[in-house]
Amino acid sequence: RREPLALINLKKKNEETGEEELASRLDHCKAKATRHIFLIRHSQYNLDGRADKDRTLTPLGREQAELTGQRLASLGLKFDQIIHSSMTRATETTEIISKHLPGVKKISTDLLREGAPIEPDPPVSHWKPEAVQYYEDGARIEAAFRNFIHRADAKQEEDSYEIFVCHANVIRYIVCRALQFPPEGWLRMSLNNGSITHLVIRPNGRVALRALGDTGFMPPDKITRT
């Protein structure tokens, strides 16, 4: 529903200058800029924490976040914003990354919290959440996809560069949906802690994946997948 034709009211078309007016209004609704979406998985955290507030980053996780922040800063891009999951490990990762990107505003959202997006196919034996989780988390994560992953607004004049700090399940689901792959295949991908996934959304709505779970900027002994 983001095609220009879906954004105008065809019933208001002037009968005399119909085609010309329609073309003008369509052009007014067309996106002009490209969006660059950088999806960052949070760094390694304390798996023993019972509550979210106890699942803080490990010392290695803090190192990973520093490396990710340095890598993003080295790209020389003008980042517009950092949107992050409200969970502790994502928030802490964001705080460390943002030190390397001064002036970039941070926005917290519950939509990007970790969860069970959709039942994976084929199923796996090591991870079987309650069925209700797919209904609760799945609707929320799908809402995150629809809210954040779309072509640029027609009013946007310049290309944008946005960072999203969240979780492996969320990122993998978003990648499948953005590329129009069967979303049930999300669990076939694996993402390292602190990794960078880069999606490009063109003005015509086409999406390209430039990087998936990149941690090539980290020394081998700093790479984890917990």
Q: What is this structure, in a nutshell?
A:
The protein has 5 helices and 6 strands. The protein has 226 residues and is α/β, with parallel strands linked by helices. The chain has a 6-stranded mixed sheet with strand order 3-2-4-1-5-6, with helices on both faces.
Kindly list the characteristics that best describe this protein.
mitochondrion; 6 strands; Serine/threonine-protein phosphatase PGAM5, mitochondrial; 226 residues; 2 domains; 5 helices; Mito_Ser/Thr_phosphatase; Rossmann fold; single chain; His_PPase_superfam
Describe what this molecule looks like in 3D:
This protein is α/β, with parallel strands linked by helices and 226 residues long. The protein folds into two domains: 1-30, no CATH class; 32-222, 3-Layer(aba) Sandwich (Rossmann fold). Helix content is 30%, strand content 17%. The chain has five helices and six strands, in the order αβαβαβαβαββ. Strands 3-2-4-1-5-6 form a six-stranded mixed beta sheet, with helices on both faces. The longest helix has 18 residues, at 131-148. The two termini are 37 Å apart.
